[in-house]
Design a protein that fits this description.
heterodimer; A: alpha/beta; eight-stranded mixed β-sheet; 11 helices; B: alpha/beta; four-stranded antiparallel β-sheet
Amino acid sequence: MSDVVLKVENLSRYFRVGGFRSRGQLHALDEVSFEVASGEIVALVGESGSGKSTIARVLAGLYRPSQGSIVFEDETISKQSSRAVRGRMPMVFQDPFGSINPVLRVGHNLLRTLKLHRPDVAKSARHGEAVALVERVGLSPGVDVLRRYPHELSGGQRQRLGFAQALASNPSLILADEPVSMLDVSIRVGLLNVMKGLRDREGVSLLYITHDLASARYVANRMIVLYAGRIAEEGLTEEVINAPQHPYTQLLMATAPDPRLPLAEIEGEKDLGEPPKVIDPGPGCRFAPRCPLVMDVCWANTPPMVQVSLTHRAACFAVKAP
Amino acid sequence: MSEPILQVRDLKVDYMTASGPAQAVNGVSLDLAQGEFLAIVGESGCGKSTLLFAIAQLLTYPASIVGGSVIFKGVDLTSLTPEELRRHRWRDISVVMQSAMNALNPTLTIGAQLADACRAHTDWSDKKITQRSAEVLAMVSIDVVHLKSYPFQLSGGMRQRAMIAMALLLEPKLVIMDEPTSALDVVAQRSLMRQVETLRHELGFSVLFVTHDMSVVSHFSDRLAVMYAGEVVELDTTREVFDRPQHPYSQGLMDAFPSLLGEPRALTGIAGTPPTLVNPPAGCLFAPRCSFAMDVCRTTKPELITKGTRAVRCHLVNPLKSA
């Protein structure tokens, strides 16, 4: 495929845990491979501790990968990645209150990004470009918004501003780490629509990191379900939602609250547990302790990816290739 | 219906701000029956947490109750002295805070924190305290060994359940919960809600539950109150509100959830932001964001009018007689 924007191969990231003599390694991410094509939204879905934010942080250059490679627009990302590369892959953060400098006007950051990352925009044109940017994410009138201080904006407006700031460097991929989880339900949809608009109108790709399956379905073309640092399932959104293969995806589907339906019954439900911290793991499926379908082989071997269709795969011994 | 255990009447809370008092809670009235689960939903800043804190008498400056009453089993809590209130706290009314991470003391074991609450409110012996602590932990499916654990040794869901165990120590009649699930993943969220449901049926306490995500309570609460800008705009049995929302704001909220079912479809959410609560505009507070707003909405404030089980504050549902 020629229009691949981002190609991640065998990416792992470990953290040393325990005291300073400890050799314990927390496997936050283990041999994760995926691609993002141009003009698509890929959702990375998982619970806390699944490694979804670690992926974003490695991609953004905040952590170095322990293993594996990242190829972004045919360029291998290394630890000395240039500012230009990072500019083409900006990040939108979760907390709209912590991610914007409160003492500077809204326009300041935008103009600065334009100055640093957009040599093609002349100094005299920057203000006009900044106005256009905030209006592209639905903040208007732009001239007025740029003059305000962050505290004068609501959470939803700030998050839109986060996207405007990401757009300022004319990116091909935006990393959005839980951009709506701290917003009220009533304004989340507005932000999700902004993300869709960026894809449809501007051809920007997005990596949408979330724990919310329903919102992932709403915006994403493809979906990657992570569990304890590994990919559990990957496929076109509707494939994953309509025919989830991995028992973990099925659990997520069953527990997602939907007011339109009666409460889903889960067999033998008591405490459904939480994802493990993976410290110095041996082989074996990491979902086995919570899995209703667990077999002997799951404890001994790491499940391979099974291709369910051309676009759909799952890492589970219980899944049979067609 | 039996005598309500809690009656909130025309409760008003103001925050003092530099530009004047902000009416965070403006004339809220609610009844809660024994054993009932009432959920209060609304977006941030709508006053839902302030309402809970006002009911539990936990407000501190710059917030204060400026009107109305909170009658718990015939006693008006707003008129009690701190010492009198202390006798009701934990025994009759307990509170589960939003973030167990911050509400639990990180330097003390779970057991020590449970014991602390018991010593403050009872004259139990150490033996009795340990026994009761083990009992309540077992109730929320936490192994008794965790009495000796520190909060960081528990997962997020277990910490939140430990908070609930703590709230249940003295068998209160009313448990007030302020977004206890917001820091949890969906799987843990569901476990917690089921646990609350089971315990409520076993022990018969009432629950007042605040959340911004109404899908969390959709299967667990008996009645649902939708708050907007410090006022209740709709109140009915949970199922009714979900199936037939009447206030445009509730309708907007219902339409703001992406679904996992059916054909994918575009959603709109609710445009705009809530009004300022310092000198709020005349008329209906939701009118500026409402796609059905009429002239009367901008001039005359709608009353909360009850018909049957349903109360709605909207001119569309309850047209003015003169109009």
